[in-house]
Amino acid sequence: MTAKGTLCPAPFPNFVTQYPDLIARLKATEAFEGSPHGVPNHIIMNEYEAGQGIMPHEDGPKYHPVVATLSLGTHCVFHYYRYSDDASSTTPHGAENSGTGRSIDRTPVLSLLLEPRSLVISFGDMYTAHLHGIEDTFEDHIKSPVDLGGDSDSPANAVHIGNWDLLQDQKLKEMITRGEPLLRSTRWSLTCRDIPKVSTNLQRLRGF
Ligand SMILES: O=C(O)CCC(=O)C(=O)O
Ligand SMILES: [Fe+2]
């Protein structure tokens, strides 16, 4: 993508278009039905070592406001944040400057446990008016929604997740229920978006 937000198209690798055919599967979710190309035309792959995350940020207006994030490797906890200077804001627990002159309420509005091989699709208000990020940590403490009593209590820093009922990985669920931390290892994410502006004159753009 150029600085002005124009995509210089290049063919996707086979694993995107043939097997496991990510594009067809993403199209089948219907999340991109209203996007200019009806499918993602741009994918960023990020690699995170254990202990690494990504600061709260917005993806911005150069993309159609739908993003599909596929997680591979280890789990992670994905937080959505709001700006603390929103009209609807109450006093934030801890505010931090976003670098855009706006401060961020450090208490997430929503936290999701992204399992290995899971897909999360962010759109609407979550794309246009919120930030998202992943904390730099080696282990995640998740609040158990199941009360076993005794010593299975979640630690004070445990995170409430909004997608417990959607989790597929029984081993992860059992660890959370027992109050055990989830240890991170390497995670790869594929962030799939549709860039509305596509160059039809690659030579000219490369000249800049
Ligand atoms: O790796 C992720 O899950 C998030 C990546 C992200 O937010 C981005 O590339 O804009
Ligand atoms: Fe992002």
From TrEMBL:
<keyword id="KW-0479">Metal-binding</keyword>
<feature type="domain" description="Fe2OG dioxygenase">
    <location>
        <begin position="39"/>
        <end position="196"/>
    </location>
</feature>
<dbReference type="InterPro" id="IPR005123">
    <property type="entry name" value="Oxoglu/Fe-dep_dioxygenase_dom"/>
</dbReference>
<keyword id="KW-0539">Nucleus</keyword>
<dbReference type="GO" id="GO:0005634">
    <property type="term" value="C:nucleus"/>
</dbReference>
<dbReference type="InterPro" id="IPR032862">
    <property type="entry name" value="ALKBH6"/>
</dbReference>
<keyword id="KW-0408">Iron</keyword>
<keyword id="KW-0560">Oxidoreductase</keyword>
<dbReference type="Pfam" id="PF13532">
    <property type="entry name" value="2OG-FeII_Oxy_2"/>
</dbReference>
<protein>
    <recommendedName>
        <fullName>Fe2OG dioxygenase domain-containing protein</fullName>
    </recommendedName>
</protein>
<dbReference type="GO" id="GO:0051213">
    <property type="term" value="F:dioxygenase activity"/>
</dbReference>
<comment type="similarity">
    <text>Belongs to the alkB family.</text>
</comment>
<dbReference type="GO" id="GO:0046872">
    <property type="term" value="F:metal ion binding"/>
</dbReference>
<keyword id="KW-0223">Dioxygenase</keyword>
<dbReference type="InterPro" id="IPR027450">
    <property type="entry name" value="AlkB-like"/>
</dbReference>
